[in-house]
Input
Amino acid sequence: MTLATRWRATAALGRALMLAGLGIGGAVLMGEPVGLVLVAPLVVFAALGLAARPTRTPSARADIDHVSLHEGQGTTSRLRLTDAEDAEQITRVVAEARYVATHPADGRVSGFVADGLPILEISPRRWGRRTLGHERVALTTRWAGYRWGPATLPGLEMHVLPGPTAYTSRAETPQPKGLVGAHRSARQGAGTEFAGIREFQPGDRLRRINWRISSRTQRLHATTTRAEEDAGMLLVIDAVADHGRSGGVDGAASSLDLSVRAAAALAEHAVRRGDRIALRVVGGSGRQLRFGSGWVHLRRLLLALSGIHSGVEGHRALATHARVPLRATEGTTVVLLTPMLTEAIATVAATTARRGLPTLVIDTLPAEAEPAFPDDTDPELADLAWRMRKVEREQVLAGLSALGCPVVAWRGPGTLDEVLHRLARRAQLPQVRIR
Amino acid sequence: MSGVEWPVSQLVARLLMFVGPLAGMVAAASAGVPPPGWLVALVLALAVGWALLPESLLGTTCLALVLAWWGLADLTELPAASLVAALGLLVAHVAALVAAYGPPELAVDAPTARLWLVRGATLFVAAPVVWLLAVLLEGQPEPPGVWIAAMVAIVVAAVIAAVAFGASEEEPVGDA
Output
C-alpha cells in the first residue's frame, strides 16, 4: 500500500528560529551583542534548515520479498519511496506482531537515504495467516528542517505454511486402489514384486516366460508379479479447539500445531510417493480439499492448512448431522489428527473404521496441555474436571483401539510405520463392511 | 513512558540536553553575573522535561531563559564565557534534534552521530566569529542608521522564515 503525507517543519527548526529572533531582537533593542554571540550558530542552523526546504512530496510503500513462506524461514521487508530526493534521513518503526520475529529485534531502523533504504528482516514463527505490525515511516530533510510523516503503513499479510518437517515411512499402504503407483497391490499385474509362477496363458508377455521351469516341465510357464498402485490418504484435522500453548516453531507446540505440522509432513510424503491426498477440517473453517496429487496440489493443501483456525462453528454443524460426510472411497487411508477431546471426532473415527477403511488416529494432545477456565472457577474443581475429562479420553482411545483403529502419538519419521504394517496385514483378511 | 528501555545513545543525547542549558548558566556565573537560585532551578526543571520530550516547547523556553539572563545581565564587556554558553545552547539543541529522529527506544546510529558532530562543530564557528567582531568593533562609533537597518533586516528575515516555516503543527515520531 502506498501512502502519502506532507512535509512539516521540525521542532528543531522552530526552536532555532524562535531563539534566533529572540537573540537578534534583544541584541538590537538593547544594544548588547551577547545575544548575537549566543544565537549565531542557531541562526546559521535555521538558515540552512530553511534553505533545504523540500519541493516534492514523497510517497512510501512497504513490500515484503515473499508473501508465502514456511514458518521459521525469513524474508525482507523493504520500503519503496518515490520523490524522496529531498530526504536525508529515514526512520522505520514496525510494531510488534504475534509470532513474527524481526531483525533488529525491536523493529526500529534508521539511516541515511543516500546509503540505501534500511531493510527489516522478518521471520514468522508460526504457521497461519500472519499480519505484520503496522509500520511508521518518517523522513527528514538535510539539517533536520522538515519532516515527512510519520506515516503509518498498515501491516502486510503473509501466508505462513507449516514448517518442512522431516518425515519418511517405509510402511506399505493397507489397501491401495488406484491406477499406477508405488504400492504393492493385492491383485496381480505388471509390477516388479514376485507373485508366483503358473502355466503360460494367452495374453502373457513373452518376456515373462520362465525358461528354467518351462524346460524342466516341458510346458510353458510364466512368472507373475503383483500390480503396483497408488493410494489415497484422507487427512482429517480436529480444529474444534486448540489445546496447550504455542511457542512458535522453536517453542512448545499446541494440539493444532502438532496436527497441522504432522498433516503437512504426511501430505508431502504422500505426494513424493505419487499418492492422492485430501483434507477435511472439522471445526474452525471447516475447509475441505478434494483428492489430488502432485506438487501443485501439495501447495494448495499447505495453504489450506495455513488457513486453519480453531473454532466451534463446524463442530455445531457436526453435532447436528451426527456424521461427517468424509467422502472417503475404498482404498483410502483415513488419518485423524486430533487431541480426542470431542465426542463427535471419536464418532467419526469409529464410523470410518466400521466402514472397513483403514483408519488411524494421531493423538495430538500435548502432555502439558491445561484447560482454560474462567478466573472465578475453583482451581481444585477445575483440576478435578480436567482429570475426569482425561480419564474419559483414555477410555475413548482404548475403545477406538479395540475397534481396530490404532492410536499413536506423533513423533515424526516412522510414526505410522508399525500401525500401517498392522493395517496392511489386516487388509488381507476377509472383512465385514458396513456401508 | 514506564517500561521504555532507552539505549545508551539516547540517554547520552538527553543528558546533553540537560547539561547544555546548565553550562549556559554556569558560564554566566563565571562571567560575574550569577543567576539566582530560582532561575537555575527553573531552567533545570525545564531541561529535565525537555530531555523527556525533545519535541516540546519546553526546550525553547529553557534555552530562551538562558538567553534572556545573558541579555539582561549588566555586562561591562563581552566575556569569553559567552562562547561557552553559546556552545551549551548549540549542544543541547543538536542533541534534541538527534534524539527526536525516532522513538526513544531507537538508538542513535554512529553515522548520524558523526554527521551531527561535524555539523555542530561547523555551526559553532559562527559564535567565535561574531564574538571576535563584537570585541573588535567595541567602542567604535556607530554608522548612522545602523540600528534601523538591522531592525529592517530582522523583520525581512522573520517574514521569509515565517513563509518558509509554514503554519503546520508537527507530529512526534515516537511516544516521547
The two ends of chain A are 54 Å apart (CA to CA).
